[in-house]
Amino acid sequence: MGASARPGAAPAASFDAFGAKSAQYKPHEVVFYEGDPADRIFEVARGTIMLFKLLPDGRRQVVEVLRTGDIFGIPNGDEQDCTAETLTDARVNMLDLSQVEGSPAIQRQLTRCLVAQMQSLHEHAVLLGRKSATERVASFLMHLVPDRGTNACAGPVDESNDTRQVKLHMTRQEIADYLGLTIETVSRVISDLKRRGVISVERNDEIRLNKVCAVCQLTGRH
User: Fold this and answer.
1) Where do the HTH crp-type domain residues begin and end (predicted)?
2) 213 with 161: CB under 8 angstroms?
3) Which of 9, 25, 130, 135 would bridge with 4, disulfide CB 3.0–4.6 Å?
4) φ and ψ at residue 15, rounded to 5 degrees
5) Residue 97 falls within a domain, yes or no?
């Protein structure tokens, strides 16, 4: 499902309040594999997790990037339909399906979260289906600035200082797999944005948005 530190995010879930079990994970550990039994529902209590599917030829499509408060692993059959892998240190809460089915309170919480997360799924479908490579990369960067880029965004408080440092928890290849691009295209777009002065690359896992509004203008939302 969607990522909560971005526009349209779900309100933080509270599986802890329902007696959920919890597990700690290090970066790049698998929470579950595609084909595993779908007998539990999961919540990201802390950290970042990606969901991906492997195509028969070995290509990977990252279908969602999950952050704190997001719910995932909701069954559509007896087996998980994708693989969940952590991108950072993470804590994951888990509820058995029997707990969910027997609790109207949990079901209401799930509904509230999932309705909000659907907006992110719709946005990602538009991104994959209609946006250019530059628009896709710009949209990805803006999702890392959760208080900007939405319809309600009033712009920067100080236009002379409209910068933001963002932390990337994904490799260039993972970003490419999420955006439906090749790693070469992602690298080319990032280099072009650097050349234009829109962003600066501080480290491989950090990017500075030199002017957030300029990045937002490249997302195709305007």
Assistant:
1) 131-213
2) no
3) 9
4) -60, -30
5) yes
Please indicate, yes or no, whether residues 42 and 116 belong to a single structural domain of this protein.
yes
Residue 5 lies in a domain: no
Residue-wise pLDDT tens digits, 53-80: 999 999 999 999 998 888 899 887 899 9
Residue 157, amino acid: V
Partners of 60 in the β-ladder: 54
**Per-residue pLDDT reduced to its tens digit, 151-190:** 556 566 566 678 999 999 999 999 999 999 999 999 999 9
Q: Is 74 helix (H, G, I), strand (E, B) or coil?
A: coil
| Among 102, 128, 154, residue at a domain's last position | 128
Range of the domain at 146: 131-217
Spatial separation of the C-alpha atoms in residues 94 and 5, rounded to whole Å? 21
